[in-house]
Amino acid sequence: MAESSSLEHPGLDKAAGEEFLQEAFQILLEEVVRKGTDATEKVCDWKEPQELQELLDLELRSHGEPRQRVLERCRDVIRYSVKTCHPRFFNQLFSGLDHHALVGRMITEALNTSQYTYEIAPVFVLMEEVVLAKLRELVGWSSGDGIFCPGGSISNMFAMNVARYHRFPESKHRGSWALPRLVLFASRESHYSIQKGAAFLGIGIDNIYLVGVDERGKMIPEELEKEIKRAKAEGAVPFFVSATCGTTVLGTFDPLQGIADVCQRHGIWLHVDAAWGGSALLSRKHRHLLAGIERADSVAWNPHKMLTGLLQRCHGASATYLFQPDKFYDVSYDTGDKTIQCGRRVDCLKLWLLWKAVGTEGLERRVDRAFAFTRYLAEEVKRRDGFQLVLEPEFINLCFWFVPPSLRGKEGSADYWSRLDKVAPVIKERMMRTGSMMVGYQPHGARVNFFRQIVTSPAVTRADLDFFLDEIERLGRDL
User: Fold this and answer.
1) pLDDT grade, residue 206 (50/70/90)?
2) Paired residues of 272 in beta bridges
3) Beta-carbon neighbour count of residue 348 at 10 Å?
4) Please, where are the H alpha helices in 218-347?
5) CB–CB of 43/436 below 8 Å?
């Protein structure tokens, strides 16, 4: 009887839930939106793993905790997390907080739908088509197809899979064993997702021909031509070329016109990985960096332009419990079969709401502002003692060394580069432990460790950039 009566009432307390939400949102507003974007606050409150384990008490137990304790857990999660919205977070290719985009994510999480059919995501299916059409227009296409993907790596893999299916449709049913040896081409500066995609799809990493680059890291079309001819002479079938617009470290753009000419001569699918650099298309001043992108067969900017219907034919499995052909509405809006995923979170609202709020002109201003800040920093680096550019920035990747006083004027010393290699890691550790800011570093080819600074947050001001250089100098002056 007790079990039967319990079914008469909801399994949760809605009033208590709403009260929890209101308090949790207040914590979010205070700790992330306000403090997280306040330059006077720490970027991170660094703790070693064992210490953090003890502070957070991550163990899951049989009994639940009271509301106030759970709210404190929420506050602790925020406290010990890195504030990527902080104006002095320059560590990744993303940063900042946009209030409209945040609301978009909150709405999609609250509605908790999956974007595979029109019947359960009608607004978002229509919205995604509008956003994708606008992005295709910016690329320079009047038609095509597309899908939002969970990141640039998956986008590149989709392009590779569709290119193979376009060349060999039988691969979908007969598998790779029925195909000739397929090979693809990418520059030595291409994103590592090209290798992951080739491995995942059964093409094989050994079947990637890495094309030579110039001194800035741009693919050389003549070298691509040579590699294609070499592959054919070895009995392989070239089917896919991946050009990069915005390399991860140096921010380089491959020469698309010359690469497109080579692909056209050989009848090879041209994919452009513009996951990082694609946003330059929003700027009339800087879109020339992607000149020729309209000649590509596919683009990862998460959107894809592909032959209409090809995504569906390549990835579709026609699951009858989802994609019934005899529904009462136009089933062409059931877009979920275009992707290898089943459940797919809604990604379009975040961008759509931001675009609605600021308009194309507002997005353009953000892109131009990022370029302007990078140019400002580059000039400051050239002006200040102890700072040295790795190369002039083409995009918004600023790569530079900090040379501490003890190494200045000693470039000819035998141990100069080995000592300079250790500078960036030490400075990075010091800034992390103090929580003052975050910036990435890495070696690159024959170049020893250098900093790579990225400005994408609209909250950043010139004062933050001046602080950034001053702080590196302060943290490294005794090295």
Assistant:
1) very high
2) 243, 299
3) 24
4) 221-233, 256-266, 310-315
5) yes
CA distance 460 to 125: 34
Among residues 147, 167, 153, 169, which one has the least CA distance to residue 306? 147
Burial of 114 (0-12, 13-18, 19+ CB in 10 A): middle
Residues recorded for the chain:
479
CA–CA distance, 104 with 123 (Å, rounded to integer): 13
The average confidence (pLDDT) of the chain is 89
Q: What average pLDDT score do residues 335-352 get?
A: 71
Q: What is the dihedral of CA 34, 35, 41, 47, to 10 degrees?
A: -150
Instruction: Label residue 369 exposed, middle or buried (CB < 10 Å: 0-12, 13-18, 19+).
Output: middle
What tens digit of pLDDT does each residue of 240-270 get? Answer: 999 999 999 999 999 999 999 999 999 999 9
Tell how strand 89-90 and strand 438-444 pair up.
parallel
Measure the CA–CA gap between 52 and 82, rounded to whole angstroms: 13
How far is residue 237's CA from residue 233's CA, in Å, rounded to a whole number? 10
Predicted pLDDT of residue 5: 64
d(CA 305, CA 135): 9
Neighbour order of strands in the sheet with 89-90? 89-90, 438-444, 447-454, 397-402, 387-389
Residues 399-447: tens digit of each pLDDT = 999 999 999 999 989 999 999 999 999 999 999 999 999 999 999 999 9
Tokens of 179: 């195909």
Q: Which residue has tokens 């690329």?
A: 139
How many Å apart are CA 374 and CA 396, to the nearest integer? 6
Strand segments (E) across 73-211: 89-90, 182-187, 208-211
Tokens of 433: 């432990």
